[in-house]
Amino acid sequence: MASSSKVSRAIALVLRLVLGVVFVYAAWTKLRTPWELFAMEVDAYQLLPIKAVELVARALPWFELVVGLLLIAGFWLRTASTAIALVLAGFFTLMVRAYVKGMEIPCGCFGANDIISWKTLLRDGSLLAAAVVLVVLSFRARWKAPSASSLQDA
Amino acid sequence: MKMKLCALALLAMWPAMAALSDVDPQKTAGKPSAAVTIEVFSDFECPACKVFHDNTLPQLQRDFVATGKVFLVFREYPLPMHAHSREAANYAVAAARLSLYQAVADAMFRDQAAWSANGKVWDAVASVLTPAQQKKVKAGADDPSVLGEIMREVSIGRAVPIQSTPTLVITHGATRYPVSGTINYEFLKGLLDGLLK
Q1: CA distance B98 to chain A (A)
Q2: Is A151 contained in some domain?
Q3: C-alpha distances in angstroms, A101 versus A97, A98, A123, B51, B162?
Q4: Regarding predicted confidence, which is higher, A8 or B45?
Q5: Rounded CA gap, A91 and A113, in Å?
Q6: For a tag site, which of A34, A146, B91, B93 has the least CB within 10 Å?
Q7: pLDDT of residue A143
Q8: Cβ separation B188–A40 shorter than 8 A
Q9: A94-135 residue pLDDT tens
Q10: Structural domain includes residue B41
Q11: ipTM score
Q12: What's the rounded Cα separation, in Å, for the pair B112 and A104?
């Protein structure tokens, strides 16, 4: 029983570090370039009015940075992992929609020129699966041992 | 220290400068000395390239190229998925050698729907040429140097790497930004204004 809890904690640690680093990297690729580049990628999905595109392009990289850092640091783990799972589910849905519609557009994941393909879908699908596992592990840890678990929210 | 910085900047800019050194002047627009260079990698049979050509390009030309702020370079990037785009690129490059690139490019984008369906690319090309020009462009399209120029531009695109068309490679100093997909002019203008500040 104790060893299974150790394994869960180890898996959660690896997942939160991987997802945290991926989100910080995704934020960095966007924040190091003019925001208009990411805005063009968001706009390419043809879903939002121009003002909303601008808002997303300016705010999303900072959101990715904050939740990525929270995951790496292990703070507010349930909140951060749930937020990341929801955001990844949103990204994945939009990418599948664009792929099915045959739109040859950049996914907007890690900087410019990353065109949506089965490879980007596989990559984002894997990240989504990892985030869902992390959410389950973080909530399960709370239900099982709320006071002792290292997975609980800070 | 200043010399070292200049040398480093030159070194960083070298790939872009080398790639632009042998550009056909007929496939450019604006001043080569402009602060920003935009290479347009395009495929005549790609619908998004037509949208860019018809909507975004005229605004870009009016606001930035005509005012000397941006130097435009047109690059051929015929995608293998399009049956007639290589033939179209051959005609365009052959026309460029007679200073007719823009006229032929405009005609091919204008009639894209027709020739991409029936394969009659030549009909669009011929519509804007005199019989004498038609003869020269037809002959030029089979010229090995024309085919070589397209191959070279495709190689330059692969090195970027270009993954879809149209892709704009925006070079400002030592920095290069590839932009692809549906290119919204408002954001492109904002980006260029920011770079030119």
Answers
A1: 34
A2: no
A3: 6, 5, 19, 18, 21
A4: B45
A5: 16
A6: A146
A7: 61
A8: yes
A9: 999 999 998 888 888 887 678 899 999 999 999 999 999 999
A10: yes
A11: 0.78
A12: 18
